[in-house]
């Protein structure tokens, strides 16, 4: 369960820093090494959340880390090794199929990206930039987003692969096909009981799966001009997410602390899924390369703070 991070730059003969520890240890719920399979990662992180979604709780899965460490692979995967998106939906349909005799259910999903603080629909990219609106019950809606209803995981895989090709990807010095936006797959499960005497009880569970943009530092990517601005926007939404996580975690002092969800589109969209009726998993990705030591350290610290979130379900 522990990650030990060694500082590659420390010189063993450096007298001034001789008694500072050369390694940092972080403890998480589960740590995977380079041999872990997609199946293992999915079973240990996400599988248990699916029953919750069927019971009407929200769930959120984040893939976080610097560029090139495999976030998109973890979430989307390839045809031969599908990622969390497909495995989760597959299990969701199986779980719903088991209750189909008593319950009518609909599953709708949308796939969008947040790039430079604007929202684009990845299933219908020609629709331009979309607005976030709040309805009377206080839940956040995206005006004009394409919602797809299907109960076939394979169809969804094709849609997601197509949507992923629409994502804003640009080469940086750190990664040739770096995703420059946060991709959010939002799955809403609505269930109505078939028996008359139960009244019109409706269970709504939302599953958010978020493939965040790379959290690397600007110096590493050698970005200038447009790329640099883009990086600033990416870091802005990651910082807003970090601030919300800090305010929600126990270390933040009083429980009545204000959580600023409105700092970025990403946190506003995920408002229901960070606090309140939800379970959250963050899958942090780090690179074993010594050149990305700083990035790995920042990623682990960020994920470590997320571990302290306590929500009142």
UniProtKB/TrEMBL annotation:
ATP binds at residues 65-72. PROSITE patterns: KINESIN_MOTOR_1, KINESIN_MOTOR_2. Keywords: ATP-binding, Coiled coil, Cytoplasm, Cytoskeleton, Microtubule, Motor protein, Nucleotide-binding. One of its GO terms (cellular component) is microtubule. Residues 1-309 form the Kinesin motor domain. Gene3D superfamilies: Kinesin motor domain. Its main location: cytoplasm. GO terms for biological process: microtubule-based movement. It is found in: Cytoplasm, Cytoskeleton. One of its GO terms (molecular function) is microtubule motor activity. It comes from the Eukaryota. Signal peptide: none annotated. SUPFAM superfamilies: P-loop containing nucleoside triphosphate hydrolases. It holds the Pfam family Kinesin. PANTHER family: CENTROMERE PROTEIN E, KINESIN-LIKE PROTEIN. Belongs to the TRAFAC class myosin-kinesin ATPase superfamily. Kinesin family. This is Kinesin-like protein. The gene is Kif19.
